[in-house]
Amino acid sequence: MLSRAIFGNEAAMANSDHLLGALVLTTAVIAWAEVARPLRFLNILFGLWLIVAPWVLDGGTVAGSLVCILAGIALIALSLPRGKRSKEHYRSWDRFIV
């Protein structure tokens, strides 16, 4: 979200990073709920966009583009593990826990 201030990204690249940062944080916080865990797969799509964005959008610096690609790879890698299942049960919602 701070690519404009830290790396000097401008225009579409900075706007994309700012919007995507907010979406990733929101999705990650919602996915903390055990029954909402499948939302973490949405962050994989966001990570793919972070990898592709430097080639599609204008306004990115070399450092900003590199960090964007690395952040996308990290986001995908961190979104894949399932995590430990708690001992709680959620009745009919249990089938949605992935």
Describe the structure.
By secondary structure, the protein is mostly helical. It is 61% helix and 0% strand. It is built from four helices and no strands. The protein has helices spanning 3-7, 11-30, 40-56, 62-79. It is elongated and about 50 Å long. The mean pLDDT is 89.
How would you summarize this macromolecular structure in one to three sentences?
The protein is an all-alpha fold. 61% of the residues lie in helices and 0% in strands.
List keywords for this structure.
about 100 residues; mainly alpha; about 60% helix; about 0% strand
What ranges have pLDDT less than 50 throughout 5 or more consecutive residues? none
Radius of gyration over all CA atoms, rounded: 16 Å
Broad shape: elongated
Q: Give the distance, in angstroms, between the N- and C-terminal Cα atoms.
A: 29 Å
Structural class: mainly alpha
Average pLDDT works out at 89
Which range does the strand content fall in? under 5%
> Secondary-structure element order, as H and E?
HHHH
Largest sheet: none
Number of strands: 0
Helix percentage range: 55-70%
Distinct helical segment count: 4
